Amino acid sequence: MKLFTIFKDIVRNTFSKPYTRNYPTEIRPSFEGERGKLIIEGEKCIYCGICARKCPSNALVVTKKPDQSWQFERYRCILCAACVEACPKKCLHMVSRLDERG
Ligand code: SF4
Ligand code: SF4
Q1: Domains of the chain
Q2: What is the number of the ligand 1 atom nearest to the C-alpha of 52?
Q3: 55: Cβ below 6 Å to ligand 2?
């Protein structure tokens, strides 16, 4: 019985397409709504700090005075997009990592 099951698997796997992709020649396309990483359009930022206050993992630190700065600790980020939704200037975006490969 077991031998028959193994034989069935061998035949099926011999004639079926592989389940894996031939990476890197065959790259998986990104999908809608994917949250790959956070980016900022720095020139639009007004350093209001709303994003930092909304961030649940304290990944953002924004200062306005004495110097304007926007800092992001990537390894703290949980990709929740709360900062993206809260930003009044719409300068934060979640972008795909998959599209960067190639
Ligand atoms: S909420 Fe937007 S405008 Fe305000 S500091 Fe954050 S990124 Fe800049
Ligand atoms: S995506 Fe979420 S965890 Fe990452 S910086 Fe924005 S608010 Fe913080």
Answers
A1: 2-100 (3.30.70.20)
A2: 6
A3: yes
CA distance 33 to 87: 18
Cα–Cα dist 60/55, whole Å: 7
Ligand 2 pocket test target in 53, 54, 78 with most atoms within 8 Å of CB: 78
pLDDT, tens digit, 9 for 90 and up, residues 50-69: 999 999 999 999 999 999 99
- Residue among 70, 77, 94 whose CB has most ligand 1 atoms within 8 A, to mutate: 70
Whether pLDDT at 28 is above 70: yes
Q: What percent of the chain has pLDDT over 70?
A: 94
Check whether 94 has a pLDDT greater than 60.
yes
3-state secondary structure of 71: strand
Q: Rounded to the nearest 5 degrees, what angle is found at the Cα of 78, between the Cα atoms of 99 and 68?
A: 90
